[in-house]
Automatic annotation (TrEMBL):
InterPro entries: FCP1_dom (IPR004274), HAD-like_sf (IPR036412), HAD_sf (IPR023214), TIM50 (IPR050365). GO terms for cellular component: TIM23 mitochondrial import inner membrane translocase complex. Residues 97-240 form the FCP1 homology domain. This is Mitochondrial import inner membrane translocase subunit TIM50. Transmembrane segments: none annotated. It is found in: Mitochondrion inner membrane. Gene3D superfamilies: HAD superfamily/HAD-like. Component of the TIM23 complex. PROSITE patterns: FCP1. Essential component of the TIM23 complex, a complex that mediates the translocation of transit peptide-containing proteins across the mitochondrial inner membrane. It is a single-pass membrane protein.
Length: 287
């Protein structure tokens, strides 16, 4: 029963390891088990038969290991096809004359729209207050991309109705996300854009993106009629687009823990106050 013991040891071994590690750790075992067992020339017939039976028996765990590795490789390839974004370059290359433009990545549900289902009428999608003006204005300053975790059959029709003027130049849906720990994450590293020039806005930004340093979180929209979150962000985003900081992530880090739109207004007021003080002091010195 040596082969059963060997196979049991193998099962205990492979649990926590990657396929490549399993291959490396079992290589010597597989080689030793497939190497014919030497038998002395003067060995008895019983000893020769015993060696032959042993060699044959040892091929069983080796075959089991190789079968396991083949099956696991197939399964992992299959899973990887669902778990990883469909491409390492989700967006086409920028033209040389547009490479200075920042990329504004927007979530869809509870950020730009809200979808509601009721038995008597099915699904209905509502536009967030100010979304039309927001998208149109941002389209003048940014490359605007919508990156959703919903299926294309939902995303495409919604964006067709939402973006009738074509300001949204990139549309990414669930196949472009990374599936990890039971959730679909936006992976900004796959956008084919300089990460220093990418900003992601969502009602669930930190929960849905693998690059928190590029995130701006706003209040999720759930049909509140008096919502102004998108319009409130316009001054901040317009400033960023015009100032073109070397690394947008450094700017966003300075707003960590704050309501970005409100904090930007406060900082702008403070800046204006200081400018007024400097002007006033200048007048005093000239007198």
């Amino acid at each position: 029963m040596a082969y059963i013991s060997a196979y049991s040891s193998y099962i205990d071994l492979v649990g926590p390891y990657t396929l490549e590690e399993v291959d490396q750790k079992t290589l010597e075992f597989r080689k030793s088990m497939t190497t014919p067992r030497s038998v002395a020339e003067n060995a008895s017939e019983f000893e020769k038969i015993q060696a032959m039976v042993y060699s044959t028996a040892m091929k069983v765990p080796v075959a089991a290991i190789e079968f396991y590795m083949d099956v696991r490789h197939t399964i992992e390839d299959h899973i990887r096809g669902f778990a990883e974004p469909t491409s390492d370059k989700l967006l086409p290359d920028l033209e040389p004359q547009t490479q200075h433009i920042f990329t504004l990545v927007l979530d869809l549900n509870e950020t730009l729209v809200y979808s509601d289902w009721q038995r008597e009428r099915g699904w209905r999608t509502f536009k967030r207050p100010g979304v039309d003006a927001f998208i149109e204005h941002m389209g003048k300053f940014y490359e605007v991309v919508v990156y959703s975790d919903q299926l294309p059959m939902y995303v495409d029709p919604v964006l067709e109705r939402l973006d009738t003027k074509g300001f949204i130049t990139g549309r990414l849906s669930r196949p472009a996300t990374k599936y990890q720990d039971g959730k679909h994450y936006r992976d900004l590293s796959k956008l084919n854009r300089n990460p220093a020039q990418v900003i992601y806005i969502s009602g669930h930004a930190l929960e849905s993106c693998l690059q928190p340093e590029n995130c701006v979180t706003i209040k999720p929209w759930k049909l509140e009629a008096d919502d102004t979150q998108l319009l409130d962000l316009i001054p901040f985003l317009e400033y960023l687009a015009m100032a073109r900081p070397a690394d947008i992530r450094t700017v966003l880090a300075s707003y960590q823990g704050h309501d970005v739109a409100a904090e930007f207004i406060e900082r702008s007021k403070e800046h204006q106050r200081r400018m007024q003080e400097q002007k006033h002091q200048g007048r005093i010195w000239r007198r």
